Amino acid sequence: MDFQKTASATIEKLFFRLVDKWRWPCLFIILIMTLVMLFFALRVEVESDNASMVSADQELQVNYDLFRKTFGNDEMLLLAITRPHLLRPEGLQIVDRITEEISALKGVTRVLSLTNAVQLVAGDFGSEAIPLVAKPYSEHDALKITQALEQNPELSQLLLSKDRQTGVILIDLAGDRVQQGQGIAAIEALLATRFSDQNLHLTGIPLAKLTVSRFIQRDQQVIIPFSVVILGGLLLLMFRRLSGLLLPLAAMAITLCWTIGLYSLCGYALNTITGLLPPVIMVLSIATTVHLYSGWLQLAGEPGEPKILLAREMRKLFLPCLFTAITTALGLISLLVSDVPAVQLFGVFSAVGVMLSFVVNILVVPSVLGFLPIPQTGRRLYDTGALRGLLRATAELTVNSPRLVLISSLLLAFVALSGVGRIENNTDLVRFLKPGATLHRDTMMIDQAVGGVNRIEFMLTRKDGKALTGLEDMTRLGTLHESIDQLQKVSGSYSILSILRQLNRAEMKQKELALPENGDDLLNLFDLLEVAPDQEFLRKTISADFTKLRLSVRTKVIGTSDTAKLVARIEQLAARQLGAGYHLTPTGEYYQVVADSNRLVASVISSFSLSLGTVFMAISILFRSLKLLALALIPNLLPLAWTAGLIGFLGIDLSTGTAMIASVAIGLTVDSTIHYLARFQREDRGDCKEAVMRTTMATGRALTISALVLFFGFSVGGLSSFLPTIYFSVLTGITMLGAVVCDLLVLPASLVLYDAWHKR
Amino acid sequence: MRKILVFLTICLLLPELSFATQGNTEVLIRYTPVPADPPYQGEVRLLRRDSAQVVQTLLKSKVMNHVIAAIQKKELKNWPQDREGQVDSRSYTDELVKAYHVVRVRAKDRQKTRERHLQLMIEFVLEGERGYVALYAPTLTQEGDRLVLQKKDFLKKLPLSRNYVQRNMQLIIQDSFQLEAGKASELLQQAAGD
């Protein structure tokens, strides 16, 4: 107890020195530091390849590295051109021009379209590769073209829609990120300038990544200024003082500079997840300032030396503010459990931001307030109005009808929990974007026209390491293909088998696409493949020693959850139809994204339990009371349950964004509880009801204002280009409102009920 | 009498058979793997064998039928229907196909080994005023990118017109060594020792 008193006196003494003598040097040092960090903050880069969204899963990465080493880069763009009579000469000429001009661009390694695709046909001296559609294009060749397409169903399915009005141009990009970016930019420029009169649609994973990067930049430019405007307006409305506007904004700006400057200084670039750092830090920083500034406003009319009064008030708020910062940081730091670097970075730097915000607020706010006179009329201005009436009504409700309050809120939680069952873990790269976004529109259009834009890659090997050149290998693979093609959401599968069948048909001068009847003839086909002119193309389907084979499965636009189920189903089919002698490994760019997204969601959920544990451990250390700890649990878990129910009833998927809500929110909701309980402990002099009335009236304003700040602050994220960010922002904001309702209704009601039960 | 007849026959055939046994005074002028880009299917050599100019093509390929088809295609292109030498070209390609079948059958007989390459050797020879094509079933080994001739079994000698043989030798040199017509001709002259 003595230690507490001594510590408390020391803190008050330090605050007094700060507001009395140290304020100038303190503010000067902060200014210099802020300028330095601003220099770095302005240089923060935006990640262009989403590399930090790739998990540290070794097995996944090793498989993908081997896949890329064997088959080359699998990042591809799909360009669709739609015309009423695409196969007429003028349509084919356009396709040919686009194909040739894109082929010549830097960063593009290969282009495949109707006009440069080849088919294998029987010639006088064995098989011959001839163009699928021969030049010059003429009206008379329409029948020939139709026949060629019918004879090569896999190729035509890949390059042409069923109604033959949409042609697809497949564009392979260089593996190098810089060249890839240049290639995409050049393609976009070419299409916008040379082919702007054509009905073109462009999609693909590399474009999705680049689009995400562009949107992050756009969001930073929109959300940050908008946050300042919204938060500024709110502060002005609540405090109606210039200092009430400028001080929180200044503290917010300093914290933001320090955190983002530090982030940049550590060499990190902003990504989809860490793009949320600026708005989150701004909101969290303001919440602390609101409490300190409200404390200063409550000094209005207090007798005594202003600096001593200010130091005393800051001392009172120091511990609750420190602990709320710690609990918020603990909630955020729990995201380290995730093995996705972007989430880890978000967790660490938002936690750092919260702690920096505490340091900045605790130094800047008293220093600046030390220059201002204690408000004389502040209490009156601040106290009057609807808010006071509302708080009184709330306090009376909790004191007079605590059972009603508790039962109603629990009932609401039960209703909400029934919606939790509807939540599905699903991240959809394309549907991440708003329906109006070009990439979203183009992808859906191509998906509808050609029945699939995503490709799940598999690598097939024999367990004995031998070449996959046996007739049995290919026959089993053929059966697997048939089964895969029948799966829902699969629009086709492709492997070397398709080429072997074409080659066999041409070599044997047959009509049907089929495998040879004996192993020797099949080996002859592999011999032919070895000397085929376009080895680069063949290496995309089978390794040079024929021991690794690529199986590509084209799927419709589906979410990561459905894709994961599909992969599991294909693996089951493979186990049954290929037998025990083979390995079928899912991999590829798209599968990486799918696996990472699913792991991300799973790891973020697991981080919530850690977050919950650490946050409540911090509360128990602060209050050293099991009673308060138990009572604090209810108002903190209820808003999360309500939000979870809301997510379920609205049919929002659990994605990278929505999964983070719980971990972030628990650290924030507990802040209001800490402030309430800290004040309650001071006000409790034996009469619980009276203490609750006084606590609600004293802290209710600050809690409501900070909740509104958090709600509106987070809601600004609703302007983001990404739906998960929008969901995260708006739903976290709603959770904050739920939290303040619980802290002002459920927590006091629980305290009153506990007290009554305890006295009995 | 019979012995005399046999002796006379041998004496008559000796000059014709001499090409199959000679080779001790061979000078390699130039060689190159073919085709220009891997995977190589053989090697073309320009030799001077005593006074004869020889363009020797060693083929070692898993897709010998396609190599033969490629040669047939070139012959058809170089010796069209109306051109003198077309008959020689037809005789050459017919014999080549027969030789291919022979080496294929021989290879099938020893298919216990996993070796899938077939081997064939074609020689275009200019010897004074005579020109001929000789076909062999060779035994070749690989040393890096180079083929080493260990043994050769004679299959067929095809006497053809000097013009046809000379022109084809020039075309093979031009094609394999990727030379212009003039340079190819100079190289061929070099093999003649001029």
CATH architecture of the largest domain in chain A: Up-down Bundle
The number of helical segments of chain B is 5
Helices and strands of chain B, in order, run as HEEEHHEEEHH
CATH superfamily assignment of the largest domain in chain A? Answer: Multidrug efflux transporter AcrB transmembrane domain
Low-pLDDT residue spans of chain B = 11-23
**How many separate domains of chain B?**
1
Oligomer: heterodimer
Short description:
The complex is a heterodimer of chains A (760) and B (194). Chain A is α+β, with helices and mostly antiparallel strands.
Give your account of this protein's structure.
The complex is a heterodimer of chains A (760) and B (194). Chain A is an alpha+beta fold and 760 residues long. Chain A is built from 25 helices and twelve strands. Chain A has two domains: 399 residues, Multidrug efflux transporter AcrB transmembrane domain (Multidrug efflux transporter AcrB transmembrane fold, Up-down Bundle), CATH 1.20.1640; 136 residues, Alpha-Beta Plaits (2-Layer Sandwich). In chain A, the strands form four sheets. Chain A has a four-stranded antiparallel beta sheet, with helices on both faces. The two termini of chain A are 29 Å apart. In chain A, 50% of the residues are buried. The mean pLDDT of chain A is 86. Chain B has one domain. Chain B contains five helices and six strands, in the order αβββααβββαα. In chain B, a hairpin with a 2-residue loop joins strand 4 and strand 5. In chain B, helix 2 packs antiparallel against helix 3. About 7% of the residues of chain B have low confidence. The interface between A and B is small, with 9 and 12 residues.
